[in-house]
Structures are given as C-alpha cells and as structure tokens.
Amino acid sequence: MVSLPQYRNALQPQTTLHEYRIEQVLGAGGFGTTYLARDTHLDKPVAIKEYFPSDIAMRAAEGTVQPATTEREADYKWGLDRFLQEARTLARFSHPNIVRVIRYFEANGTAYMVMDYERGEPLKNLLIANPRLPEAQLRRLAGPLLDGLRAVHAAGFLHRDIKPDNIFVRTDSTPVLIDFGSARNALGGETRALTAILTPGYAPLEQYSPDGKQGPWTDLYALGGVFYRCLTGTQPPDAVTRMRGDTLADGLAKAASAYSAPFLRAIGWALALDEKKRPQSVDAWRAVLLAAASGPAVPKAPPPAATTERTLRVERPAPLRLAPSPTKRSWLPLATALGVALVLGAFALAINHYTRPADAAPHDEGRFRAQVLQQFRAADTNGDGYLSAEEMRRFPFLAKEFARLDTDGDGRISLPEFEQARRAQLERRLAKRTD
After folding, report:
1. Can you list the domains of the chain with their CATH numbers?
2. In CA terms, which of 39, 189, 307, 312 is 20 to 30 Å from 294?
3. Whole-prediction pTM value?
C-alpha cells in the first residue's frame, strides 16, 4: 500500500463519504484513485474508487472535484457518465472472478464505486518475484479468468484493460478481474488528450484507432499478452511495433523448453494482429487453450539437416478444428501484411513450428469433447460458466452425484468437472461392452 502524502490530489485520511471513512490510498491512475476505507455501519474494510481524471480535473480546497478548465467540462462530464455506466454494469455481476461493486454514488462533484476489499496482490507484483510462472500455474489462473471474462462478455460489456496490474490474485491463489477500463476507452474516443490511455503490449491494434472494431477478441488479445508475459518473463511487443517487425514468434520459441507446444500455439492465436484471425469468443479460445494445456507436450522436431531460408508469418494459427482425419496439417500463408522475418536453419524450423495450426484431435475424442461442450453450454442457462444443481437436473444420473462431481466444493459444476463426469460415464459404458 502507498501512503497518502504521495498523492497530492487524494482525499485526506478520516474523510467521510456517507458511511465510509477513508483510511489510505491503495493506488492511483490517470482516471481515478482507489482508497482503502472502513464501512462504519458494518465495521469492515472496503475499497472505494473515485473518478478523478488527473489530466483534466482538479480538487478544490474543500475536497470537491471539478474540470481544470471550462474547455474540459464536456470531456469531464462524458467520462463521469461512463464511470457511472461502468459501475451500474459491474453492480449486476456476482461472480467470484469479477470485482464486486457493492454500491456507487455521486458526491464532491464526482462519483465513487464501493467494492469488496480483496486480500492478496496484483499479478504484476507476483511477477516481480517470479518472472516466469509454470504452465500448471497458468492453467489454474486461466480457467477462472476466462469464466469471469465470459460472464462480462455475456452481459455485452468489455474489460478493455486486461494486464498484470488489473488481475488481482487472492491469498488463496484465485484470480479476480479488477479495474475495468470501459470509461477510459470511451473517453479516448471523445478527446485527443485521453486517447493514449491504453497499455502497449496488451492493447491490440483496434484500440489505437477510434474506428477500430472492438469485441471479445480485444480482451482475448490482452489476456494472451498477460500469459506471454508470464511465460517469457518479458513484456509482449506492442502491436504498432509488431506491424513493422514482429518478434512475438521469437519469444514463444524461446519458451518452448518449458511449455507445451499446443499451449504456446493457443497463446499465439490470441495474439494475432488481425482481429479476424483471433478467437472470436472466450469459449472458442478456452476450448483450445485448456485442452492444449492439459494434453501431453508435443516432442520437439530434430534440427534440419540442411540450412534453408524461410519467410515466416508471425500471425498465430487458426483454432483447433475437430476434423475426422488428423493426418494432415496445413501451413498458414507465409508473409505478414507489412513485414516478414527471415530466419535461417534450425531456428527457422523451430519458429515455424509455432505458425501452423494446432494438431487436430482424433475423431472420437474430438467428437466427444465437442458434444460435452455443447451439452454444457445448453445447460448453462444463466451463462455464468457453471452448472448449478438446478441446471444439472437435465442430466438425471449426474444430478444424483452432484456433491461427488463438485470436486472443489464450490457448490457448482465447472466445465472440466462436467467433462470428467461425462468421460467416466463413457468409460463405464465401453467397459460393459467389452465384458
């Protein structure tokens, strides 16, 4: 935590906002300040986020916030409206992997969001101590993060600012998406002074342009960038620089000794520069990322006997296709839109390994997983990414074993738990046939 004196525009300790008493600053950015406060009615800590766009606002002596100049009043009001819209949207969510907004209100000429105070630390801090996280740990983070993101997208909302700073890891190691960036992007389209509020390396090309088409693929690019940072120990190259000369494939290739090839390909897919070539939904990426991560590592190809020159595409592969025959793999086109990388010999072959589509699953396994995913999504009537006891009633035999299937004891069935149960059913049926 950071002491208040470092923040000249922050509210002072002991300032009261309704029933909340400010204690200290948790953090501050270009669009707001987050405080640790005490709910004096319930006697518990909360986090309060204050709308304060520091580039265009100032705080008066009595604590009120106002535009710095009359010319910025429209910008300030626009941002305030978007902040309140963000708060209203987040207040609708009750998801373990999305920051929970308890209430919001206007005061001091600005607005405030009151959120649960979570104990833990940002992923950014964890990466300072451990620059590279093992694949198993990334898988444990990926599932809950995608669950939360799926719920956000199902509500028609985008995060738009996913990065290690905005993924909070609780003391029990479960992640939470925090600090939604919708307000800052809306502001970016409204005024030139605020268009730079994005995070290079995690922001795809469409976020650099007011005409860019943003959607779920925008958040998936950012989350792919987070995983790239976690497995390489380096910041992902920013999208604009990649247009001139892409080094993304180099980073993925260097990580090949510690991570499975399908997992790296799935991350590369999310980081495609062209939004049309990325996964278009959380479900599409999840099916490849988690399936790839849980499968065996693909053996590395031996170095080539002769040195050859290749022109390599830095875009990532298309998603896994559940094709009947796994015997053929097609290569992606070889040239990028604005530049190509020339690599020689064995290094070229190693990089090229990550630019082709992921291996197709065998026919029976692929058909099984596709059917399981279809059944799960059909049963998930509220779109929260889990099956409740009520939703499981459409599977009578499984519903009877709900408590046993709920392996983590959270009172709901996740997709991996559902798939495991369906697989066990299938294996029992096959065993009976062979008896």
Report:
1. 15-116 (3.30.200.20), 120-290 (1.10.510.10), 366-432 (1.10.238.10)
2. 312
3. 0.61
